């Protein structure tokens, strides 16, 4: 089956294309739209994007592999990114990561067996004044404690 | 006692503080953009902007008005100009632009309108890192509100000068905060930095003349024009050094009250840490501080200013601690570091500097775009060697080689990422050599190293 965008997202793409003088400029925004729909960017999606924007498949693959936020394979329903960079590390980000790993029974980079949560570490998420912090899907959770983390992870796993 | 100002932050924390209604009520929103577009010429805007002495808030500290003046004077029909706003905030320790986008997005948009007019552009792209979903939504919301009121679009304020502002997102790459990398990313390419020249003002995004400004720089523009750019500059304690206005100072790490504070340019590290930050966790002493994002070399409180000659710019502070020197673009350069984004990361006594360096080197190893060999290989090498030192498996020769590797990166890469990696590494090794040696000599173990104030 070939990948197609939903009608609503096709409309968003049409709007995006009016913003730039080249089609290529819509490459990253379109990849985001595709990932939003499918959850990850595989060969099928890259093929679709290269056709849609008249780009060489190699160009699209080059872009996809450059940026860390494009998933190359399916991930959990929810994605948890714990910031590990220095300002958070000074406020025990390592402890938060270890707590998540223990609580979820997985290591950073893995997904829980029920497919609910993928745990990752992130580089600085611009929330250093409220460290330690983590991003869950699109939301930031700041000034974390192990109690707060427990509540967040429990909610995600029961979702 | 430091007194925070509230020009950029006036609407912070107010209910719906980010709405157009609040911005118009509290900040005379869009009045100044209207005045600029309807009564001033492009040349007048640039001349006025220069007087604000706004030094680029992204880290390089280049004067904004001067940058605007580099754009071609005449806009060719086939070579449109672009304004690109850098909101790819990702420098470790930096958390200021996010607050502006979330809490005061209209100041950003109004700044974009004035900026576009000043450089002869009709289109502005705000490049926001993808992770900042609230920031993107607030900016998009502000654009929609401004459009409905006729402040953006074909005839903003009734003037035949179309201005469109678009939010464009990245996809997770620190390097895209480097201006030419950002331009490549905006064009839909891999975010690899470009060689300069050509500079963006000659050939920027889509090969057209472009100005790249940091988001905070742009957000300060309405305030500056509203009060008069010279008056704005004079708010700063460093006005005489052409480092003008107010800006957002960040504080994080081992302080009791971290946060973002708007201040006239020129507070000292001691004032920030002890007056606004409430001091160090556990009432410890400061081990060192990173003045403005992880790429700026650390400073230790024991370091003193050496400016014996009367003509030295820092003569007034001769013999004093560098923590008592005002934080400014030029003052920090003169004490051997950089102001950068002026978000300060504080480390308390007891923190292991070797572990801190390893943490940062892991960041640079991960974020190097890989284009230039010295940076790609060097950043990984710096990380692995620091790790080896911590594990007690390194030799003194390898510690010395850290210097050589760092020096081998500097000046040998396309963009400043190389310097941003090597300079902080060198500072750690030079200022804390004994700590590094302790691991090599077996006096200290990796398991004893901590980054925490317990």
Describe the protein's architecture and organization.
The complex is a heterodimer of chains A (159) and B (454). Chain A is built from seven helices and four strands, in the order ααααβααβββα. Chain A is of the alpha+beta class. In chain A, strand 3 and strand 4 form a beta hairpin. In chain A, helix 3 (43-52) crosses helix 4 (57-66) and helix 6 packs parallel to helix 7. By secondary structure, chain B is an alpha/beta fold. Chain B has three domains: 20-234, NADH-ubiquinone oxidoreductase 51kDa subunit (Rossmann fold), CATH 3.40.50.11540; 239-348, Ubiquitin-like (UB roll); 353-448, de novo design (two linked rop proteins) (Up-down Bundle), CATH 1.20.1440.230. In chain B, helix 7 links the parallel strand 2 and strand 3 (164-169). In chain B, helix 2 crosses helix 10 and helix 16 (396-409) runs antiparallel to helix 17 (417-431). The mean pLDDT of chain B is 97. The interface between A and B is large, with 46 and 57 residues.
Strand order of the largest sheet of chain B: 3-2-1-4
Number of helices of chain A: 7
Radius of gyration of chain A: 18 Å
CATH names the topology of the largest domain in chain A as Glutaredoxin
Q: Percent of residues of chain A in helical segments? A: 40-55%
* Low-confidence segments of chain A: none
Number of domains of chain B: 3
| Greatest interface by residues involved | A-B, 46 and 57 residues
List the uncertain runs of chain B.
Answer: none
Proportion of beta-strand residues of chain A: 5-15%
Number of helices of chain B: 18
What can be said about the biggest beta sheet of chain A? 4 strands, mixed
Q: Say which CATH homologous superfamily of the largest domain in chain B is assigned.
A: NADH-ubiquinone oxidoreductase 51kDa subunit
At CATH level 2, the architecture of the largest domain in chain A is 3-Layer(aba) Sandwich
Q: What is the number of strand segments of chain A?
A: 4
> Helices and strands of chain B: which structural class?
alpha/beta
């Amino acid at each position: 089956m070939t990948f197609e965008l939903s009608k609503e997202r096709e409309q968003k793409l049409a709007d995006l294309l009016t913003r730039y003088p080249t089609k290529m400029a819509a490459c990253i925004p379109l990849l985001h739209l595709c990932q939003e729909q499918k959850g990850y960017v595989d060969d099928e999606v890259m093929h679709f994007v290269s056709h849609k924007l008249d780009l060489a498949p190699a160009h699209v693959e080059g872009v996809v592999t450059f940026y860390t936020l494009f998933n190359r394979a399916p991930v959990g329903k929810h994605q948890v990114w714990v910031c590990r960079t220095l300002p958070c590390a000074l406020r025990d980000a390592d402890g938060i990561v270890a707590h998540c790993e223990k609580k979820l029974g997985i290591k950073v980079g893995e997904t829980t067996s029920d497919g609910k949560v993928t745990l990752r570490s992130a580089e600085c998420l611009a929330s250093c004044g409220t460290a330690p912090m983590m991003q869950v899907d699109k939301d930031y959770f700041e000034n974390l404690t192990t109690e707060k983390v427990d509540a967040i992870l429990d909610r995600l796993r029961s979702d | 006692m430091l007194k925070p100002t509230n020009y950029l932050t006036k609407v912070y924390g107010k209910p719906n503080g980010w709405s157009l209604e609040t911005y118009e009520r509290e900040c005379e929103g869009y009045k100044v953009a209207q005045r600029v577009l309807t009564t001033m010429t492009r040349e007048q805007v640039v001349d006025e902007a220069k007087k604000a002495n706004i030094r680029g808030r992204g880290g390089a500290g280049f004067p904004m008005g001067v940058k605007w003046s580099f754009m071609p004077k005449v806009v060719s029909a086939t070579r449109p100009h672009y304004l690109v706003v850098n909101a790819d905030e990702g420098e470790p320790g930096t958390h200021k632009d996010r607050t502006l986008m979330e809490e005061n997005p209209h100041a950003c948009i109004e700044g974009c309108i004035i900026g576009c007019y000043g450089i002869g552009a009709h289109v502005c792209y705000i490049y926001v890192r993808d992770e900042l979903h609230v920031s993107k939504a607030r900016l998009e919301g502000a654009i929609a509100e401004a459009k409905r009121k006729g402040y953006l679009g074909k005839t903003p304020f009734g003037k035949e000068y179309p201005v469109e502002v678009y939010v464009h997102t990245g996809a997770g790459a620190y390097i895209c905060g480097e201006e030419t990398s950002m331009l490549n990313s905006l064009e839909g390419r891999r975010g690899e930095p470009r060689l300069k020249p050509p500079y963006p003002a000659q050939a920027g995004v889509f090969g057209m003349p472009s100005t790249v400004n940091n988001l905070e720089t742009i957000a300060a523009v309405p305030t500056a024009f509203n009060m008069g750019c010279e008056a704005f500059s004079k708010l700063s304690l460093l006005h005489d050094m052409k480092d003008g206005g107010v800006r957002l100072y960040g504080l994080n790490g081992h302080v009791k009250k971290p946060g973002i504070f708007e201040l006239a340019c020129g507070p000292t590290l001691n004032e920030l840490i002890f007056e606004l930050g409430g001091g160090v966790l556990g009432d410890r002493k400061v081990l060192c501080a990173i003045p403005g994002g992880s790429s700026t070399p650390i400073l230790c409180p024991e370091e003193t200013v050496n400016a014996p000659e009367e003509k030295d710019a820092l003569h007034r502070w001769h013999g004093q601690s560098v923590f008592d020197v005002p934080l400014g673009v030029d003052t920090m350069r003169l004490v051997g570091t950089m102001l950068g984004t002026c978000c300060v990361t504080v480390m308390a006594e007891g923190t292991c500097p070797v572990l801190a360096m390893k943490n940062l080197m892991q960041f640079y190893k991960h974020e190097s775009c890989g284009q230039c060999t010295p940076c790609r290989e060097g950043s990984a090498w710096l990380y692995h060697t620091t790790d080896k030192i911590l594990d007690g498996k390194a030799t003194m020769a390898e510690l010395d080689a850290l210097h050589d590797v760092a020096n081998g990166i500097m000046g040998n890469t396309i963009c400043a990422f190389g310097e941003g990696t090597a300079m902080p590494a060198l500072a750690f090794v030079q200022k804390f050599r004994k700590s590094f040696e302790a691991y090599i000599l077996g006096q200290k173990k990796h398991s004893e190293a901590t980054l925490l104030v317990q």
